[in-house]
Amino acid sequence: MNPLVSTDWLAARLDDADIAVLDATWFMPGAPRDAGAEYAERHIPGTGFFDIDKVCDLASDLPHMLADPADFAVAARRLGVNQGSRVVVYDAHGLFSAPRLWWNFRAMGHADTVVLDGGLLKWRAEGRPLESGWRPAIHGDFKSRPDAALVRELNGVRAAVQAGDEQILDARSAERFTGAAPEPRAGLRGGHMPGAFNLPWSSLVRADGTLLPADALRDAFQATGIDLRGPITTSCGSGISASLLVLALARLGRRDVAVYDGSWSEWGARVDTPVVAGP
């Protein structure tokens, strides 16, 4: 199944009872923007707002870690998501944070989740309808059925790095990957995991916010040296853009790729995890 849907597709189905549309906009730390306020100002009609920084493991000192399944289910139900819903997620960037929520739903066992290609950026550029304000709570019957195979935790990634039996693909910029540029979060070492590959997420997204076509995606992955047939775990700064790589791989038919949830926010903050600086 294609993990992406077009703006034409969504526009024709906005009133369908089995469609649940969610705004998953999120901004980098320090950005002078408020995702919730921007949602209230304008969003696709019928859309609910999913706050990635609030529906998460609030007991963790790491950013927006995957929520407890019961807590996630409560949040999804309050947004009107049912067990039979096709969940459509988007963000204001075009394509950046929406894949994180797409991955969240899949990690909770809801495979019928797709991303709006081009997101709100493309929707607005096409002059499609918008609405403002906060949507009243609509109670659905969503239930979480966690799929642990799609989630990697520290010990699993550490073992994979030591054994070299799983490819780690890092979505950060080349400068952050090599350690030439500082991390946006304080206290993190620069560099990458030993043996990791680098594919900056931004290289996969076009100016209109849509994902590159399948052939171009395949070329981009293969240019990193990664084996598209082998086991892959994606990482980034905090698990946001790592999910975009997973989305792109799903577009190529790989539905089994996992995200390292703690990503560099966890790995780079520790003193007992190996780090390589340079190319």
CATH class of the largest domain: Alpha Beta
Written as H for each helix and E for each strand, in order along the chain, the element string is: EHEHEHEHEHEHEHEHEHEH
Number of helices: 10
Annotated CATH architecture of the largest domain? 3-Layer(aba) Sandwich
**What average pLDDT do the residues reach?**
96
User: Structural class per helix/strand content?
Assistant: alpha/beta
CATH topology of the largest domain: Oxidized Rhodanese, domain 1
Strand order of the largest sheet: 1-5-4-2-3
Largest sheet: 5 strands, parallel
Distance between the termini: 36 Å
SSE layout:
Layout: E1 4-5, H1 7-11, E2 19-23, H2 35-41, E3 48-49, H3 69-78, E4 86-90, H4 98-107, E5 113-116, H5 119-125, E6 151-152, H6 154-163, E7 167-170, H7 174-178, E8 197-198, H8 214-223, E9 232-235, H9 241-251, E10 258-260, H10 263-267
Parallel strand pairs: 1-5, 2-3, 2-4, 4-5, 6-10, 7-8, 7-9, 9-10
In short:
It contains 10 helices and 10 strands.
Structure description:
With 279 residues, the protein is α/β, with parallel strands linked by helices. It folds into 2 domains: 4-146, Rhodanese-like domain (Oxidized Rhodanese, domain 1, 3-Layer(aba) Sandwich), CATH 3.40.250.10; 149-267, Rhodanese-like domain (Oxidized Rhodanese, domain 1, 3-Layer(aba) Sandwich), CATH 3.40.250. 29% of the residues lie in helices and 12% in strands. It is built from 10 helices and 10 strands. It has helices at residues 7-11, 35-41, 69-78, 98-107, 119-125, 154-163, 174-178, 214-223, 241-251, 263-267; strands at 4-5, 19-23, 48-49, 86-90, 113-116, 151-152, 167-170, 197-198, 232-235, 258-260. The strands form 2 sheets. A 5-stranded parallel sheet has the order 1-5-4-2-3. A 5-stranded parallel sheet has the order 6-10-9-7-8. The longest helix has 11 residues, at 241-251. The radius of gyration is 18 Å and the shape is globular. The model has no long low-confidence stretch (mean pLDDT 96).
